[in-house]
Design a protein that fits this description.
GO molecular function: G protein-coupled receptor binding; receptor ligand activity
Family: Belongs to the TAFA family.
Helix content: 10-25%
Distance between the termini: 56 Å
Keywords: Signal
Largest sheet: 3 strands, antiparallel
Strand content: 25-35%
Protein name: TAFA chemokine like family member 5
Order of helices and strands: HHEEEEHEEE
Organism: Oreochromis aureus
Radius of gyration: 26 Å
Number of strands: 7
Shape: elongated
């Protein structure tokens, strides 16, 4: 409490340090730039984590987490084997192949219980994806 009263008595003291207006403008622009860079553009996604487990022969289990900034009516999904914002109705109805999750030369098939999909390559290799 004593320091507050001492500050109030000084005539040359102010709560904000005296800096030029250019300094404060640069500080404000830097803060805004840092805030903006942490945000994703609407309708885009980025991969946050990617884990691969190849401990079993002839089988690789991959888990990835994506961060998406989807527009209204969209939800995080997969398009062309990449995270993307897709129509929410596709996920709600579990019609996974409508979001075109496989690469161009692969065929898409729903799993029997609709918990995911398979992408079949021309050589016969099958990639199975299950949704959480």
């Amino acid at each position: 409490m004593a320091s507050v009263s001492r500050l109030a008595r000084r005539k040359d003291a102010s709560r904000w340090p005296r800096m030029s207006s250019s300094f404060w403008a640069v500080l404000l622009l830097t803060a805004l730039l840092l805030l903006y860079c942490g945000q994703l553009a609407a309708g885009t996604c980025e991969i946050v984590t990617l884990d691969r487990d190849s401990s079993q022969p002839r089988r690789t289990i991959a888990r990835q987490t994506a961060r998406c900034a989807c527009k209204k009516g969209q939800i995080a999904g997969t398009t062309r084997a990449r995270p993307a914002c897709v129509d929410a109705g596709i996920v709600r109805k579990k019609q996974w192949c409508e979001m075109v999750p496989c690469l161009e030369d692969e065929g898409c098939d729903l799993l029997v219980n609709r918990s995911g999909w398979t992408c079949t390559q021309p050589g016969g290799r099958v990639k199975t994806t299950t949704a959480l």
